[in-house]
Amino acid sequence: MAFVTANWNPLGEAFYRKTELYEMGWNLKDGLRDCLLAAAPYGGPIGKSELTISLFKKIYIHIFITSSCIFLSLQWKSGVVRQLGWTVCDDLLCIQEDGTVLIYDLFGSFKRHFSMGNEVGQSQVVEAKVFHSPYGTGVAIVTGASRFTLATNIDDLKLRRLPEVPGLQGAPTCWAVLTQDRQSKVLVANGGDLFILDYTACTAVNPPGLSPQASSIVHMCVSFSYKYLALFTDSGHVWMGSANLKEKLSEVETKVRNPPKQMAWCRRPKSRQPSVVIMWDRHLLVVGEGKDTISYHLEDDSILVPEMDGVRIINGTNHELLQEVPASCEEIFKIASMAPGALLLEAHKEYEKESQKADEYLREIKEQGLLAEAVRQCVEAAGHEQEAETQKTLLRAASFGKCFLSNFPPELFVIMCRDLRVLNAVRDYTVGIPLTHTQFKQMTVQVLIDRLVYRKLYPLAIEICRYLKTPEYQGVSRVLKHWACCKVQQKEESDEVIARTISLKLGEAAGISYSEIATKAYECGRTELAIKLLEFEPRSGEQVPLLLKMKRSQLALSKAIESGDTDLVYTVVTYLKNEMNRGDFFMTLRNQPVALSLYRQFCKHQEQDTLKDLFNQDDDHQELGNFYVKASYKEKRLEARVAHLQSAVDEYNKAKNEFAAKTTEEEMRLLRFQKKLEEEKGESLVGFSLHDTLRTLLAVGLHKHAEQLYKDFKVPDKRFWWLKLTALAEKEDWEELEKFAKSKKSPIGYLPFVEVCVKHHNKYEAKKYVSRVTPEQKVKAHLAVGDMEGAADAAIERRNEGEISTILSRCSPTTDRALVERLNRAKSTAAKK
């Protein structure tokens, strides 16, 4: 703690510190001089390309974590590499001079490649830059023909060839990529001229307030957020301003005219002071608003890696972080500071010494009412410190101060303790992700877990998820799924061992889809392993599609049937139908009754011919007969319809269904009768039922034909009499009706004759049939024709109390007084008996 400020250097109103993150163990003879080096932001991995000279010259690409622990070495056998870079997903980009960009994962596995354009191959890439924007990872190149090509997002590749720069011959003096107005642009310096290239135009710009001594811009850099721009001129001046070149922030004379090797902004997100880090050979300079600068001597060739809150410096021996000292740390540790946090820290030190001065410091803070602010400062400062001991000291001081506050919210302290425990774990030398707390909050826990998973640090990722109590589907389950997908790629273990290991490890973890793991196994050529893994998948809807993809249709059909999901069964059946020949398809369905039944239902509505083939293969004569009968109804030609019915009769006979065969034969005879009638009388009755045919014949007066149909088809007497009676009454052919009634004894009686005549408003004709009605129906007949006296006589004669009561209910007490008295006497007599 006594040396916290030992590495602080003042610059303007702020202090800057350079902190060692790791010692690098690369053991390079010539340092980084002849290497291409690229490091990913947010403490990401490092890619290095170097030439190794032994008996043969060989180029190797190495991938390291930031603590110099090597992931792999890859011998390069492709073209000349101009630039290395990293995507936002930690994939390595290798940009060749022919414009080809090759993409490798963190473990050196080739993923894909793309080209920056056919014309690049002729003029070749002179310089390239990899940049990150809100749209993803982009690549920009300049060719030997002085033309720029831009790809804003390599995952959705759209190449933009930018306009020519006036007067530019060969490579520009310097250039950078800007992201403005949701569009990526290129800022180009050609001597003293500055141009902005977008998709449509090349626009000349002038930085406001640029030193008149400058005749050429020799270097430039854009801030991590793309909001600020720094220009280095041949006069040794550094101009700092907004990236849109509308506002000047500062201009500093460095007194060094040599072009720097690299420049990078070193500005905290909420800092008011602009600052830029400039690097020459073994010399590092930090410039800000005033004339003051900070100078560092570098022991070895280095590179600068811009971060959102500082700059990482990497060389052959050290990996360091240069940043502006955060305000909370400055207030606490600055010499002679009287800030609340500084007093609280001193109070805690004295408390540990059991000194009374602790009470004096606390009283001073309380009197100012700043104890809560002191706790907040200590907690915040702990987050910005790299050393674990310093973090603990600050957190203990904060905890000490909280004891004297009754309403201080604990969340701030608890969350910071959790964050620091996670950060210290990932900063460890073996993990090598030197995140600052500011970067961690910007990145989010989910992205950090993704990066650990991508590096196959599964145990650490799981521990962090459990410690932070991340929901399983976002945390542990997601990590385990990635682990399982990696596990299935291990070819040295058998399918049974891997499947059992995955099952035991995953158990019943929430949110894990075994089908996704099985899909990965299938993509790796391990079909049997995929099938074993699918056995653990509880959802049939996830099993079946993959089984079909793997050509395991029989198993897919069984799984679909077991699920009870008819839509899933239909999906499999449709797939089988398209993949198999007809015979094999039917045999497969024959072994699966449920699928066969569902397919028959489908064919009834969609594929009638297929349904017929199914019945033929199964020798199902009954269903074939039914099929032909239904098919006959769809035929318009009589000959085709009769042929279908004859086929139905044959099938019914084979099925030994005599009733169905006889019924179908009668329908054929009826069709022939209707056809003959149509030819003779012009009455088109083809397709009518027997009942409708009889009724129509009687209605149009073709009584002889109706009689013939009645006899030939043995129509029941009662049905025929009803049909003829109704037809004659509707035609009001009363004379023919009377003849029909006298032709022979009516099987339906004569009450229907009375009722039909009354219905058609002819009581006169109705009365002719009253006398022929049976005694039991006499009362109804008389009442139907309005003969109350006749009805009374019939009821009294039968001495039926119910019939007498019915007649009484229809009599009027005023007009039918005598009849009423007569009926009442008869009713009384009937009641006595």
TrEMBL record:
Vps16 N-terminal domain span: 5-414
Domain Vps16 C-terminal as annotated: residue spans: 512-826
Gene3D superfamilies: Vps16, C-terminal region
Presence of keyword Transmembrane helix: no
Coiled-coil stretches noted in the UniProt entry, renumbered to this chain: 635-665
Membrane topology: Peripheral membrane protein
Top-level taxon of origin: Eukaryota
Listed GO CC annotations: CORVET complex; HOPS complex; late endosome membrane; lysosomal membrane
One Pfam family named in its UniProt record: Vps16_N
BP GO annotations: endosomal transport; intracellular protein transport; vacuole fusion, non-autophagic
GO molecular function: actin binding
Major subcellular site: membrane
Keywords for the protein's UniProt record, in alphabetical order: Coiled coil, Endosome, Lysosome, Membrane, Protein transport, Transport
UniProt subcellular location: Late endosome membrane; Lysosome membrane
InterPro entries to which the protein is assigned, alphabetical: VPS16, Vps16_C, Vps16_C_sf, Vps16_N, WD40_repeat_dom_sf
Subunit structure: Core component of at least two putative endosomal tethering complexes, the homotypic fusion and vacuole protein sorting (HOPS) complex and the class C core vacuole/endosome tethering (CORVET) complex. Their common core is composed of the class C Vps proteins VPS11, VPS16, VPS18 and VPS33A, which in HOPS further associates with VPS39 and VPS41 and in CORVET with VPS8 and TGFBRAP1. Interacts with RAB5C. Interacts with STX17, MON1B. Associates with adapter protein complex 3 (AP-3) and clathrin:AP-3 complexes.
Function per UniProt: Plays a role in vesicle-mediated protein trafficking to lysosomal compartments including the endocytic membrane transport and autophagic pathways. Believed to act as a core component of the putative HOPS and CORVET endosomal tethering complexes.
PANTHER family listed in its UniProt record: VACUOLAR PROTEIN SORTING VPS16, VACUOLAR PROTEIN SORTING-ASSOCIATED PROTEIN 16 HOMOLOG
Similarity comment: family membership: Belongs to the VPS16 family.
Protein name: Vacuolar protein sorting-associated protein 16 homolog
Upper classification of the organism: Eukaryota, Metazoa, Chordata, Craniata, Vertebrata
